[in-house]
Amino acid sequence: MKRYWTGITLALGPAILITTVVWEIARMVPDYAFVISPWAIEGHETAHGWVFLTLGVSLLVASMLVLWEASTSGFWRLVTLAFFVVAGTAIAIVFAQASTTVTMGPVLGMALALSLSLIVLRFAGSSLVKAVPFLGRGWVKGVLLFVVWGIFYLILAATVVDEELTVSTGIGVFVGLLLFAVYASAAEPRGLAGNRMLIYTSMVAGLVVVLSAGAIRSSLTRIQFETSGFAAEYGETQVSLGWFIAVFAILVLFSGAVGLWAKRQDLLVAMVRARRQREAAEKSAAEIKAAEEAYLAETAAGGSSVQA
Known about the structure:
This protein has about 300 residues and is mostly helical. It is built from eight helices and five strands, in the order αββααβααβααβα. The strands form two sheets. A three-stranded antiparallel sheet has the order 2-1-5. It has helices spanning about 5-20, 45-65, 75-95, 105-130, 140-160, 170-185, 195-230, 240-305; strands spanning about 25-30, 40, 100-105, 165-170, 235-240. The chain has a domain at about 1-100 and about 190-300: Butyryl-CoA Dehydrogenase, subunit A, domain 3, CATH 1.20.140. α1 (about 5-20) packs antiparallel against α2 and α4 (about 105-130) packs across α5 (about 140-160).
């Protein structure tokens, strides 16, 4: 049973998230339970419940793709990463508002510059270290990261920092997920890109669920007003069992994603170690064989000279 627990959690987490569409997700504080109607709503009565359902289905498909061994190599690795990006973008287009106006402050600009720096150094780092071994030292890596980060931040500061930007939500989510996919692909071993992407997206999904609590409570007051012409105060509402189940579902999925990544990481490390040991053994055997042949040749030459 233990050997299958990662697969079970990868399927169970999204499945639980899907069920929240029929659970009660918001209600009145008990003191006000019967004063106003409706005093509670279920997931299918709000857009949030359908978002949870869609997230659950998408994460279930993504989990099965990542669980598939073929997703660690070649074409199917790209297909897996593409699914994450396309599915997330589609969810944003369907459920989120068409565009968002944001002002990128210095902190957000620094964070974006750091993300871009890490992506660049992940891709180019190994090549740079091979070309210039000095760059492999710990403190040099830190200095290099700081320099690259500074360059990116200066570019962002000159273009978008402190500027009000109106961004299409779909495009914004697409770019964000694409950066996640690139970052996941940049680390070694590359075959675990899908596993890393599943970890990242489960964290993003968890953030969506957690931050939806306020909007879910507001939905209850909106439905009350639409139903009876008046509504309770926001402070008189609370999230209900369905929301907590959604949070639990994400935690289950996250634990499975991390477990599968760790399992495959250990397996790949063991395979690399075994290959190196085999190569060393083959090299040693070749050297021994060459020494034996040289010795036999030398012995044969010595015997011939004695007979002569």
